[in-house]
From TrEMBL:
Feature: compositional bias, Low complexity: 372-383
Name of encoding gene: cers6
Alphabetized InterPro entries for the sequence: HD (IPR001356), Homeodomain-like_sf (IPR009057), Lag1/Lac1-like (IPR016439), TLC-dom (IPR006634)
Protein name (record): Ceramide synthase 6
Reaction equations catalysed: sphinganine + octadecanoyl-CoA = N-(octadecanoyl)-sphinganine + CoA + H(+)
Transmembrane regions listed in the UniProt entry: 46-63, 188-206, 213-232, 268-290, 310-331
Keyword Endoplasmic reticulum (UniProt): yes
Domain of life: Eukaryota
Organism: Takifugu rubripes (Japanese pufferfish)
Any one GO MF annotation of this record: sphingosine N-acyltransferase activity
């Protein structure tokens, strides 16, 4: 049985690593084995990314605790979260054991049981859901971590790429392909980027949860797939261009979020405007004209298509669709900002906002000062700037 299982696994691996899928015609894996004269990308090199992703996650925890948190305190960002819901054992039992989003029938039943009006119970459930959201301090720490990483990796990418011929002439990505030696810089760049996106993929389940959770999950999977694909079949040169292009705008959006948390509205607006211009021009302009042009047309002319070439380009096109979706959200945010005079909430808000009439305190709190009314609606200012991860794609 063990021998049969081993034989079956060997068959699966042979099918998965079929040279006719991964490599151009007349090229074999043996041709890309490392020699004393040249080093080429090897699939097993990427195994290092898994333990490194765990290390990056641990570094993030240390960074947020000992660097980002003191910076936030210095900017007078408090750890206060959204307004807490009034203590109520019956509603708490329904919330934890039955549903966080009661339907109309259940709301009416609770209204009769508690002698509260339906609107008050709806507000209680909204406040209770928001109560589980992270504080502004936690959001600031998350954004500062991502800002620091993106700034470092983007700076590294620019310093490395400006010395390469393919930055200035994208056809260099395909000359003598796939027999292009792997340099230490490319290897480091790839493993670090892959490790970071693996850490994001897993931490997405513990970070601030947003409305576009599934889209961001799809994005991370696409990014990891692109990095892996381009490394394994040695499309590393064009891969470095894709990674560097995408890191540029990510630096600005995280900086804009931090400015928003620190209540530096003018700086926030300026950074967001710079981000919007850079994101739309790079993702809807430079990316298709520079990246897709070379992967679709120049590579076809110089190398010719083969199965993994089609998969790689399909992933790049999927990324372009995500760019278009996020650009649409950015334009909506910009239009709203122009009408309101500042950048505020957008469709990715992770704190539920409410109308003015919904924000009064529950019945037993009516005697409190009216200054407490409407506090929950202030937490609607989230979206791109108070949200966490936003286009960090590759």
């Amino acid at each position: 049985a063990a021998a049969a299982a081993a034989e079956s696994m060997a068959g699966i691996l042979a099918w998965f690593w079929n040279e006719r899928f991964w490599l151009p015609h007349n090229v074999t894996w043996a041709d890309l084995k490392n020699t004393d004269e040249a080093t080429f990308p090897q699939a097993e090199d990427l195994y290092l990314a898994c333990p490194l992703a765990f290390c990056i996650f641990m570094i993030r925890l240390i960074f947020e605790r000992f660097i980002a948190r003191p910076c936030a305190m210095g900017l007078k960002i408090q750890a206060n979260g959204p307004q807490k819901a009034q203590s109520n054992a019956i509603l708490e039992k329904v919330f934890t054991a039955i549903t966080k989003h009661p339907d109309e029938k259940r709301l009416e039943g609770l209204s009769k049981q508690l002698d509260w009006d339906v609107r008050t119970i709806q507000r209680w459930f909204r406040q209770r859901r928001n109560q589980e959201k992270p504080s502004t301090l936690a959001r600031f720490c998350e954004s500062m971590w991502k800002f620091t990483f993106y700034l470092y990796i983007f700076t590294y990418g620019v310093r490395f790429l400006k010395k390469t011929p393919w930055l200035w002439n994208t056809k260099e990505c395909w000359y003598n392909y796939p027999y292009q030696p792997l340099t230490v810089d490319i290897h480091y760049y790839y493993v670090l980027e892959l490790s970071f996106y693996l850490s994001l993929l897993f931490s997405q389940f513990t970070d601030i949860r947003r409305k576009d959770f599934l889209i961001m999950f799809l994005h991370h999977v696409a990014a990891i797939s692109l990095i892996t694909f381009s490394y394994v079949n040695n499309m590393a040169r064009v891969g470095t261009l894709v990674m560097c292009l995408h890191d540029a705008a990510d630096v600005l959006i995280e900086a804009a979020k931090m400015a928003n948390y620190a209540k530096c509205q003018i700086l926030c607006n300026l950074l967001f405007a710079m981000f919007a211009i850079l994101f739309i021009s790079s993702r809807l302009g430079v990316y298709p004209v520079w990246i897709l042009n070379t992967t679709l047309f120049e590579s076809w002319e110089i190398v010719g298509p083969y199965p993994s070439w089609w998969v790689f380009n399909l992933l790049l096109i999927l990324l372009q669709l995500l760019h278009s979706f996020w650009s649409y959200l950015i334009v909506k945010t910009v239009c709203r900002a122009i009408s309101k005079g500042k950048v505020s909430k957008d469709d990715r808000s992770d704190i539920e906002s409410s109308s003015d009439e919904d924000d009064g305190p529950p019945p037993s709190q009516k005697h409190h000062s009216s200054a407490t009314n409407g506090t929950n609606k202030n937490h609607g200012t989230n979206g791109y700037l108070t949200g966490g991860s936003y286009p960090d794609e590759h």
